Amino acid sequence: VQVTESGGCSVQAGGSLRLSCVASGDISPTINAMCWYRWPSGRQKVLVAAITRSGKLTYGKAISGEENRFAISRDNEKNEVYLQITALKPEDTAVYYCGMYDRGSDWDVHSGMDYWGEGTQVTVFS
Fold first, then answer.
1. Whole-angstrom distance, CA of residue 10 vs CA of residue 30
2. Pick from 55, 13, 12: which is nearest to 31 by CA?
3. What would the mean pLDDT of 112-116 be, rounded to a whole number?
4. Region 99-120: what's the mean pLDDT?
5. Does the structure show a pLDDT above 90 at 29?
6. Using alpha carbons only, what angle is made at residue 122 by residues 119 and 124, rounded to the nearest 5 degrees?
7. What's CA 74's distance to the chain center, in Å?
8. pLDDT for the residue numbered 67
């Protein structure tokens, strides 16, 4: 299974971007949960957002109060997940990782990922 992120870039504060992630290989036709995490330099990797195959959304505590700047969506036919971020702030700077949960049991925020991408760098400058 290969998980590949794209869309990371350097962008001025206030701008927006869209990250994409695609899963390929020996993976379920409809992946249970698709997630975005971010790992700021010197800090821990944290959940940004997750979306299950039924469309249930979960936003991580890391973006608490700012969920309206983040939008996660997925295309089940393409095994792709997206993260739109608007009104970017320097504190959004991080490596963003895509994770896939491909088990039969329900996903929750404590679930470990089965597959990870290598990450895509987002840098927001003021």
1. 32
2. 55
3. 95
4. 94
5. no
6. 165
7. 10
8. 97
Structure-block tokens of residue 115:
């597959």
The neighbour count for residue 62, using CB atoms within 10 Å, is: 18
Query: Cα(124)–Cα(126) distance, rounded to whole angstroms?
Result: 7
CA angle 73, 76, 80 (to 5 degrees): 60
- For residue 94, the surrounding DSSP H or E stretch is strand 94-101
Range 51-58 contact pairs with CB under 8 angstroms and sequence separation of 24 or more? 51/81, 52/106, 52/107, 58/109
State the DSSP string of 32-77: SEEEEEEE-TTS--EEEEEEETT--EEE-GGGTT-GGGEEEEEETT
pLDDT at 98: 98
